[in-house]
Design brief:
The complex is a heterodimer. By secondary structure, chain A is mainly beta. Chain A contains six helices and 34 strands. The radius of gyration of chain A is 31 Å and the shape is globular. Classes of the chains: A mainly beta, B mainly alpha.
């Protein structure tokens, strides 16, 4: 990685400059998917303990020996020993974790240049015109080799090789003018400008299943054989968006501030139809620095107060990120997936997309009000601020079921209203005693989230677990994508069976007998930062926590009994009619409600010490001798300590994929790893 | 002053940049414009459209197609010949277990997939019929006749499920999106009219056994046979003699054509050896190049319906997920009906536990049931539709695809439909219905009957059509469902092989949570997501 920066004052009214960063990386990665069926982490968790890691040559079970005798390439370690194959793997996707690790070699090389070039003009006094051109471009290449591995008739893969090359060029051009002027106690400022952003991507990828040789230095697409099954793909894409923005501000005597903003944004036609592409977003804010009032001067002294400001703002924001591409229009799609072999030859099929066109969809908008206060006291040693906000998100861009008789499956509409409100506090203290200086900062944010108006007349299901019920729902009057489960009323002491609440009293447990069991959204989050420095040594401690969120544990399939799962699911379960103190009913694969019941929902509150960093800065006198301007060495423990009662892996990362509806469901995402970091910062 | 000029040219640049709004007009790639494609469709392009319509309808049991695995297993779960199956009594609860328990809800998966699937076929066919201009091109007109037939067939599926689904007989304009229910009479009249029109325009196969040359497309006689099936279903339900007579005439035209016959070896049905055999009137062609593995979830039917993993399988069988389980009631019925378990129709349809044990096991492999047992089993195992390793494409990995064509209408069913229609029209005055039924019995190697009774017809249908999802609809239209299905799901059975030291079947009987038949099941529920998306769609009574 390298950087090149330069600035040049060409005339007294013109400055030009450039900043450029170059980086190059090589990456080898494992599957870190968030579901247990294909992540290596999950295979470690669900592997049963009775399968040996490798077999002794004379203890290979007959079922594995028959695979070897069949001439298949069973996975072996470097010494030729066969890796253990679980007796239960035929009934699941269970691979030996080491085989998951070794079955694929993959490497990604990438190169990226980022930079910005700018010019500032001052044609007349108080007016600055800026033109800024930012860019980011580069490529990445990935080569993957999948080894031939055969464990069972169900868990095996043939040799294959894939290669891909992706280019990306992004640029942003911004032009704006700033004007500011003071007349006595009046300050006015104005700004107007526009920006345009464009991303061009292109890529090609290919794969094949036959090579002239499978030796390591032949594992490239160059060596594919003509008879190989090959695939090719790639398509250039362009995405663009543009904005106009402006701002006017006025302040009087550093006491009263008022500002108005306006911006207009548009995306290219992949998001919204031409008619609705522009979104208009105004906002206003006002401030009163009470501490600058003449009448406050005595009060300030009496209270050791140095700064007090009250703030308020109102604004509108827009969002179209929830939209996929070209979702407002219906088109024909052509694919071999829809094809058919009617008369001996394969016909590539053509069919309409499943979207009901809706050209009326527009930006979803949020209106937010914010009121706040900033305070500094005791010679600026104490800082405090508090903010209260209330945000209403209207016209959510939602994919909903289209009336089926139209032949389409879904339609995008603007519907619903979600409210978020909360309070954010920040408190800081810093001081120094001789050579010792320290600082402490704490923050806390509360979140209250509620769906005020649903997007459809009924609750909308979100995430389903395995082959069971939906567990998250979007519904009027409830938090966003809350967890809805069956409720265990009690556990039958005689049989150990869970007895569920029959809310509708119809004598049977049905999907209607479910209720809110929690939400993946915390009640509040908080953080703590501690700084200390003494004669070149510095210490930083960072902590972060989340309180009040719930997670439904769905890492292991409750219906796949042979898989490993949490020990406490057995040790804390009812054992016999005289058991006491148990938390769970007897393990029962036939209980279809239990896996989506409140007993699988846990408090996911946690506090983590995210970082403890100790550094030492070599005194300037010493570093000067070796022509450096500064030199600092540090050691850091990152994500080392977690305090939680959550029984799963990592309450911070556990949720399904990246969609909001998977919030609150733990499917075994890759946890954040503990890191021990040594580092050196050098400036020349 | 120079700086002013520079500033001015700068301002001009900004304005110029502002004028570049049309840079935001980026057309979508890799899609076709609907209007142009249909208006200018060549014969090849028209065939690409109908190829995908067939795939939507039949798709080799693709999960999401109309005749997919969801429909198959859901309907099976509702009848008395099957238990849901699967890995446990809780496996895929919402899809099939609760159907087996008669605890269906309007949120179940199969009705959702069916509803969307049916109308996507109809919509697709409407596009072909309305957007491709009139032409004299024979190939395009054949595609149009096929589209007309397929949408009628899809509508028939919808009517059998829901009774009064909206009839989308044309491309809907925006103000017609929220259609109300259509009376059954009206839909049936429309279906019969479209099928009649299609049959008059579609080509017939070139000769007996010429299915392969004709291809996996709908033929004149297949269209007639389906029309007969529609007429019999609704004519019998509504006691409409004229409709029944017309059905008998349609079916007779198929029989009289001499283009179809029953295969001698019943074991080739639902195996690759049966592909394009003379018994199939309509099938989906599972070919090496039918698009797999482009869509890796295509055609998993034999993984679903393969034997459960609690059974130690013989060498040549791939254990699947154990759906489509056979009920003890059906096993006992078939043994009695055929007069023994060694009869070809018994053995090619199901196996007893002993027949499974007698299969070809490799040395060192102990046939039997694993200690965990097999849910939904009373000692009978399905045989038709299980997963033979040799029938799969030779591909590595967990997912396996069968080369077996998926047959949708067999000549055996045509003969039985005819026998029933004749019986209802004039008590089979000329004896041709009896002859048709006896043709089916002769192939099954069981004694012929000397006269038709309704019970004989009903039992013959039950014995012959085990794999074809007709039983539930039959029980409903005959009015036999309340009695036959009254205890459905109230008892669950688990099979453990032999009781230790004996050859007595070890069956555990467990109290289930099933509700048994309720009258609302005369029609299935419209999917809740549809009644809430479309306020004009009225839910069926009781749901």
């Amino acid at each position: 990685m390298g950087q090149i920066n330069a600035e040049y004052k060409a005339k007294d009214w013109l400055t030009v400059g450039v900043n450029t960063t170059i980086d190059r990386s090589v990456r080898r990665a494992l599957s870190e998917s968030s579901t247990t069926s294909d992540s290596i982490f999950a295979s470690i968790i669900i592997s049963d303990p009775i399968t040996p890691f490798i077999y002794d040559d004379n203890s290979i079970p007959a079922r594995v020996q028959s695979v070897i005798d069949g001439g298949y390439k069973v996975p072996r370690d470097a010494n030729g020993h066969v890796y253990g194959v679980s007796a239960f793997s035929d009934q699941s996707y269970l691979w030996n974790p080491q085989v998951m690790l070794e079955r694929r070699d993959t490497e990604t090389q990438s190169f990226r240049v980022r930079g910005v070039a700018y010019a500032n003009l001052t044609p007349v006094k108080d007016l600055v015109i800026t033109s800024r051109f930012g860019f980011q471009g580069g490529y990445s290449h990935t080569n993957t080799y999948n080894h031939e591995v055969y464990m069972t008739t169900k868990n095996n893969q043939a040799m294959s090789i894939t290669g891909s090359s992706n280019d990306r060029l992004y640029y942003q051009w911004e032009n704006f003018a700033n004007y500011s002027k003071s007349f006595g106690k009046h300050d006015i400022s104005a700004m107007a400008g526009m920006s345009y952003q464009q991303t061009n991507t292109d890529g090609i990828r290919g794969s094949a299943n036959q090579l002239t040789s499978e030796a390591p230095n032949f594992r490239y697409l160059d060596n594919t054989v003509n008879t190989a099954q090959m695939t090719l793909g790639g398509q250039p894409e362009v995405r663009a968006n543009m904005s106009y923005f402006g701002r006017i501000g006025y302040s009087y005597d550093n006491r009263y501030f008022i500002q108005a903003n306006f911006r207009a944004d548009a995306y290219d036609s992949s998001k919204l139809d031409r008619q609705h592409r522009w979104g208009y977003f105004p906002s206003v804010s006002a401030g009163w620095t009470v501490s600058n009032e003449p009448f406050m001067q005595n009060v300030k002294q009496a209270l050791s107060l140095s700064f007090l400001k009250l703030r308020a703002s109102w604004g509108v924001n827009g969002n179209v990120n929830a939209l996929g591409e070209y979702q407002y229009a219906s088109v024909l799609e052509s694919s071999s997936d829809y094809g058919n072999n009617l008369e001996g030859t394969f016909l590539v099929g053509v069919r309409p997309s499943k979207i009901l066109p809706n050209r009326n969809i527009r930006w979803e908008t949020s209106r937010q009000v914010d009121v706040g206060l900033d305070l500094r006291m005791f010679k600026e040693r104490l800082t405090f601020s508090v903010d209260w906000y209330n945000k209403d998100t209207h016209d959510l861009l939602t994919r909903t079921t289209a009336p089926g008789n139209t032949g389409a499956e879904y339609v995008y509409v603007n519907a619903g209203l979600v409210n978020n409100h909360g309070t954010e506090f920040e408190l800081g203290w810093k001081d120094s005693i001789g050579d010792f200086s320290y600082g402490i900062n704490a923050n806390l944010s509360t979140v209250h989230n509620k769906v005020v108006k649903g997007t459809s007349p009924d609750r909308v299901p979100g995430q389903k677990i395995w082959s069971s019920y939906d567990v998250t729902y979007f519904e009027e009057g409830y938090p966003l994508w809350y967890l809805r489960t069956f409720m265990v009323d009690h556990i039958d002491q005689a049989t150990g069976a869970a007895v569920y609440k029959d809310f509708d009293g119809d004598g049977a447990i049905t999907p209607d007998d479910r209720d809110i069991a929690g939400s993946g959204i915390p009640d509040f989050t908080y953080g703590l930062t501690l700084n200390m420095a003494y004669k070149g040594f510095d210490l930083l401690v960072l902590g972060a926590g989340s309180q009040g969120a719930e997670l439904l544990y769905a890492v292991t399939r409750a219906d796949a009994l042979q898989q490993n799962t949490l020990k406490s699911f057995y040790t804390d379960a009812w054992q016999n009619a005289s058991s006491t103190g148990y938390k769970y009913p007897k393990p029962d694969a036939n209980d279809k409600f239990y896996r989506t019941s409140n007993l699988r929902v846990y408090d996911a509150s946690f506090f983590k010490i995210k970082q403890i960093q100790l550094g030492y800065t070599v005194p300037r006198k010493l570093v000067k001798k070796i022509a450096l301007s500064s030199l600092r060495a540090y050691v850091s423990l990152d994500d080392w300590f977690t305090f939680t009662k959550y029984p799963g892996l990592d309450p911070e990362t556990s949720h399904v994929g990246s969609s909001a509806s998977g919030l609150g469901v733990d499917f075994g995402s890759y946890p954040i790893s503990r890191k021990l970091v040594f580092g050196v910062n050098v400036s020349f | 002053m120079k700086r002013i000029y520079i500033a001015l040219s700068f301002a001009a640049l900004i304005l110029a940049a502002g004028a570049c709004q049309n840079k935001l007009d980026i057309p979508q790639k890799s899609v076709l414009s609907t209007e142009d494609y249909y208006t200018n469709a060549t014969a090849d392009e028209a065939e690409a459209l109908i190829a995908s319509a067939y795939k939507l309808y039949w798709g080799g049991r693709d999960v999401t197609c109309v005749n997919g695995i969801e429909k198959m297993l859901f309907l099976n779960s509702l009848d008395d010949d099957h238990y849901p199956g699967g890995g446990s009594f809780a496996d895929a609860t919402y899809q099939f277990q609760e159907a087996g328990n008669y605890n269906v809800t309007s949120a179940d998966t199969a009705p959702k997939i069916m509803y969307k699937g049916v109308y996507s076929v109809i919509y697709h066919c409407n596009l072909i019929l309305e957007k491709i201009p009139e032409t004299t091109d024979e190939r395009i007109n054949r595609v149009k006749a096929e589209a007309n037939f397929l949408r009628a067939l899809a509508m028939f599926d919808a009517v059998r499920w829901w009774g009064t689904p909206p009839l989308a007989d044309h491309l809907l304009s925006q103000d017609e999106y929220y259609q109300a229910n259509t009376p059954t009479d009206e839909s049936i009249a429309w279906i019969l009219a479209q099928m009649k029109d299609a049959a008059s325009k579609l080509p017939a196969i070139k000769g007996k056994g010429q299915q392969e040359a004709f291809g996996a497309r709908i033929s004149k006689h297949a269209a007639l046979a389906f029309r007969g099936k529609v007429g019999l279903w609704y004519g019998q339900k509504t006691n409409n003699k004229q409709m029944l007579a017309e059905a008998a005439a349609d079916l007779y035209e198929v029989i009289k054509s001499g283009l179809y016959g029953l295969v001698e070896d019943m074991f080739i049905l639902e195996r690759p050896m049966g592909d394009f055999c003379e018994e199939y009137l309509f099938e989906h062609n599972s070919a090496d190049n039918d698009g797999f593995p482009g869509n890796p979830q295509n055609d998993l039917r034999h993984m679903w319906t393969g034997w459960p993993d609690g059974l130690v399988a013989p060498e040549n069988i791939y254990t699947g997920w154990g759906w489509n389980a056979v009920s003890g009631d059906f096993g006992r019925f078939l043994e009695a009906h055929e007069g023994g378990i060694e009869k070809p129709r018994f053995k090619s349809t199901i196996h007893t536990y002993e027949q499974v044990l007698a299969m070809d096991y490799a040395e060192g492999k102990t046939p039997g049931v694993l200690p965990k047992g097999i849910c939904h089993n009373e000692g009978y195992f399905t045989y038709r539709g299980i997963a033979f390793l040799s029938d799969f494409y030779d591909i590595p990995g967990f997912w396996k695809y069968s080369r077996t064509n998926a047959a949708m209408l067999r000549y055996a069913e045509v003969l039985l439909l005819y026998a029933e229609a004749k019986f209802l029209v004039d008590n089979d005055a000329d004896g041709s219905g009896l002859e048709a039924l006896n043709e089916v019995r002769r192939r099954a190697q069981i004694p012929e009957v000397s006269a038709l009774t309704y019970q004989i017809i009903k039992d013959e249908r039950r014995a012959e059509l085990f794999y074809e999802q007709e039983r539930y609809f039959d029980l409903v239209r005959w009015g036999d469902a309340p009695e036959v299905l009254k205890n459905k799901g109230k008892k669950l059975y688990k099979f453990y092989g032999y009781k230790p030291g004996t050859t007595e079947w070890n069956i555990e009987v467990i109290d289930g949570t099933g509700s048994g038949w309720q009258d609302k099941y005369n029609l299935l529920p419209f999917p809740f997501e549809q009644t809430s998306a479309n306020p004009n769609l009225k839910q069926n009574p009781g749901w």
